[in-house]
Amino acid sequence: NFSWRNVDGKNYLTRIKNQKVPVYCGSCWAQSATSAISDRISIMREGKFPEISLSTQVLLACDKTNSGCRGGSHAAV
Fold it and tell me: What pLDDT score was predicted for residue 74?
């Protein structure tokens, strides 16, 4: 098995985001997209500090293709 969470004892992935705090928002499409890209940046940077975590809020506020907290498509991001 291989996991980027443990490569010779080092975690290359960014923190897990929670879309339910403080209020549930149907933003899983934005959460998953920003998390996936943030993880790839971290892997490319070999897990170096500081962690780069892309803003989900930017997609929710600015994406004209999806519907913000009312849902969307990670593929459209």
Answer: 77
Q: Do 22 and 55 meet the contact criterion of CB atoms below 8 Å apart?
A: no
The answer to whether the CB of 12 falls within 8 A of the CB of 46 is: yes
Tokens representing residue 21 in the block: 């705090």
Core vs surface per residue 7-19: b (16+ CB within 10 A) or e? eeeeebbbeebeb
**pLDDT (tens digit per residue) in 15-53:** 988 777 677 888 888 888 999 999 999 999 999 999 999
Q: Under a CB-based contact definition with an 8 Å cutoff, are residues 50 and 42 in contact?
A: no
The tokens describing 10, both together, are: 């080092």
Stated length of the chain: 77
- Number of Cβ within a 10 Å radius of residue 59: 20
Whether the per-residue pLDDT at 4 is higher than 80: the answer is: yes
